Amino acid sequence: xxYLPVFSSFWIQEAPKVNTQFRVSQRxxxxxxxxxxxxxxxxxxxxxKFNKTSIAAxxxxxxxxxxxxxxxxxxxxxxxxxxxxxxxxxxxxxxGPVAFGTIKLGMPKASIEALTSQDGxxxxxxxxxxxxxxxxxxxxxxxxxNGLLISPYSAEPLKATFxxxxxxxxxxGFNLENKEALFNELKAMVEKKYGQPITKGEMKEEQCLxxxxxxxxxxxxxxxxxxxxxxxxxxxEEISTTFTDMAMAMCPSxxxxxxxxxxxxxxxxxxxxxxxxxxxxx
Length: 282
Fold this sequence. Notes:
The protein is 18% helix and 42% strand. It has 282 residues and is an alpha+beta fold. Among the domains are: 3-72, no CATH class; 99-107 and 160-273, no CATH class. The strands form four sheets. Strands 8, 9, 10, 11, 12, 13, 14, 15 and 16 form a nine-stranded antiparallel sheet that branches. Strand 11 (158-165) and strand 12 form a beta hairpin. The model is unreliable at 1-35 and 59-89 (pLDDT under 50).
């Protein structure tokens, strides 16, 4: 049923009859302090009486209520208009490199060969086709070349392998042979910029002992340090930077026998297939 507002703070229920008469009159009343009295009659019956003081109080309360409501609505509207930054809007941190110096993934072969000493990283001669063997087979759709790369980090050219797909560089790899200092320097640079890598493999240390008390240690195993970076709009591929430390050694039968000890260090940056997660066993 509808209600009729009075002074914005009180409500009087509307009379149910159609011929209901509603009248407001004013008269003097000594019982209410001699002030002017406001009478509200419905069907000639006095339902409410208000003196001048109570009316003023009601008006003040009404004004305060309206003002408070307006301030609340203003504050609420202001809060809604405040812009918020969501996590999706933030830039994702870089997790791995996409280039070695000026040589970037996606570059065509001609652009790499056109680099000069002014670029800091450049070839000392044109690339030559990679020579495959029985153990290393060609990968369909990819062209592989060898090259010698001049860089600020090595006094001598680095042996490099360039892999292209549709004339776009998809991998560059370096054979650092036994250059342990260079290997550690480049690995430390990547670690400083992109954080800790994923480590796979194991390097074992073995003690070689002999009857005369002579002894020395050898290392055997392979360890890879890997950084990965997502490729935008790619479901099954990512960019992988891998440093590989390999050592193969055996204790000789005697101190007069030659020591079999092979060390190989390498690193590469390239587009690889994502490793599919293993299903839960339990």
